[in-house]
Amino acid sequence: AMYGDQELRVGTVDSLRESVRRAILKNPKLAPSFYQLALLDGLSFDAKTNAYGPDGSFMKIVLSSKDTDEYTRNLQEAAFALVAAEKALKMKTAVTIADAVAIGGAEAIESIGGPVLTVQLGRADAGRSSAISTLPIDLFSGNRPSSEAAAAFKRAGLTEREKTALLPCTLTRETGQKKRTTEDWQEHVSPKLR
């Protein structure tokens, strides 16, 4: 890395993390949505064809959805927050929108008291003409059978162990989100945001 590139990248990541925290502080219901968005983007990967995510392509599906239920609206609000944060950065080449989705998911876990997760940067964004994944947007809404989620993990090439590690996070973040108040969330936010 050239001199200054690392500082730029760290600053960009910190800015994205702060934007996610602000969005969650403003609307605590978005914490699960940031995680779901990251998980859906990753699960859109098809191990057999080597197509789709985690490349930010699921953002297109979320943002173009015409569904009006609360689950979809929250996913869309989380997606808009990531897009706005990415556009606000002065140097957009340091982190892609696909990286921003992953950072948002990691920050959602941390925001409910989970561990600090390191996100490996360098994901390539999907091209404008990329095919759209057939993964359903409401996979984690509770309206689909659990067998569909299991099939999505298998299609993405993830093992049973990886599925077992990732799925409980969906329940944990929902439980944490339901038990927290706005005042409680503020305790976990850096002093700069208060």
Write up what this structure looks like.
This protein has 8 helices and no strands. The longest helix has 22 residues, at 5-26. 58% of the residues lie in helices and 0% in strands. The protein is mostly helical and 194 residues long. The chain has helices at 5-26, 30-43, 58-64, 70-88, 97-111, 146-155, 160-179, 182-187. The N and C termini lie far apart (34 Å). It is globular, with a radius of gyration of 16 Å.
Short description:
Helix content is 58%, strand content 0%.
Layout: helices, strands, pairs:
Layout: H1 5-26, H2 30-43, H3 58-64, H4 70-88, H5 97-111, H6 146-155, H7 160-179, H8 182-187
Helix pairs in contact: 1-4, 1-5, 2-4, 2-5, 2-7, 4-5
Question: What are its keywords?
Answer:
0% strand, mainly alpha, 8 helices, 194 residues
